[in-house]
Design a protein that fits this description.
Number of helices: 3
Distance between the termini: 46 Å
CATH topology of one domain: Rossmann fold
Bound molecules: adenosine-5'-diphosphate, magnesium ion, zinc ion
Strand content: 25-35%
CATH superfamily of one domain: P-loop containing nucleotide triphosphate hydrolases
Structural class: alpha/beta
Number of strands: 13
């Protein structure tokens, strides 16, 4: 990749949970810090798994970040001097996100976003297909399937010890839920409608 100043672009780091999206984002941010770039890192407020003001990978590397409730909040923190904007867990932001990101890239900023491409149903996550289309560079990472060891491209949701049901709401009250990385073969969703019927 040729790094020419004031030429903006969008980079997406995607894949299922545990694929190393946050790790990869932190790696890119670190390198840009060495290059003395003016960087601002955001994450949606909803992702408060690890506290207020940092993004943290599953293997505990971290970097400072700003929590935002809405994509428009980024305008309060991005200035003329900002070279790089990074957003982790971008899929949890609102529908204005793609156009705001595009606006920043048009202004000559490098925008690095990390997020899930699919939800627990293995269906496209919100506006992520749009981001993947408008991005100049896409890195699709895989994890390791906890069942068979193959490359895992999907996120398995487990509710009270069982695979989640298709119609379950995104936020479940009073259930114990967890997530695993799984391959296409080992991924399960109860009562998922068949998308294509073989004749
Ligand atoms: P993501 O942001 O994509 O969810 P992270 O960068 O937070 O991923 O975490 C990646 C790390 O997760 C790996 O380096 C590894 O230490 C850990 N990990 C835990 N379970 C798995 C798995 N099933 N496959 C791959 N990595 C895993
Ligand atoms: Mg992550
Ligand atoms: Zn598998």
């Amino acid at each position: 990749m040729v790094l020419k100043q004031k030429e903006g672009w969008i980079e997406v780091i995607t894949g299922p949970m545990f694929a190393g999206k946050t790790e990869e984002m932190i790696r890119r941010v670190r390198r840009l810090e060495y290059a003395k770039k003016n960087i601002v890192v955001f994450k949606p407020e909803i992702d408060n798994r690890y506290g207020e003001s940092e993004i943290v990978s599953h293997n505990k590397s971290k970097t400072k970040s700003i929590n935002i409730a809405r994509a428009e909040d980024m305008f309060k923190h991005v200035t003329k001097e900002t070279d790089v904007i990074a957003i982790d867990e971008v899929q949890f932001l609102d529908g204005k996100t793609p156009e705001i990101i595009e606006h920043f890239a048009d202004q000559g900023k490098r925008v690095i976003v990390g997020g899930l491409d699919t939800d627990f149903r293995a269906e496209p996550f919100s506006f992520m297909p749009t981001l993947l289309s408008i991005a100049e560079y896409v890195t699709k990472l895989s994890a390791v399937c906890v069942k068979c060891g193959s490359p895992a491209t999907r996120t398995q949701r487990i509710v009270d010890g069982k695979p989640a049901r298709y119609m379950d709401p995104i936020v479940l009250i009073g259930a114990s839920e967890s997530y695993e990385a799984r391959c296409r073969k080992c991924h399960r969703v109860y009562r998922k409608p068949k998308p294509y019927k073989e004749r």
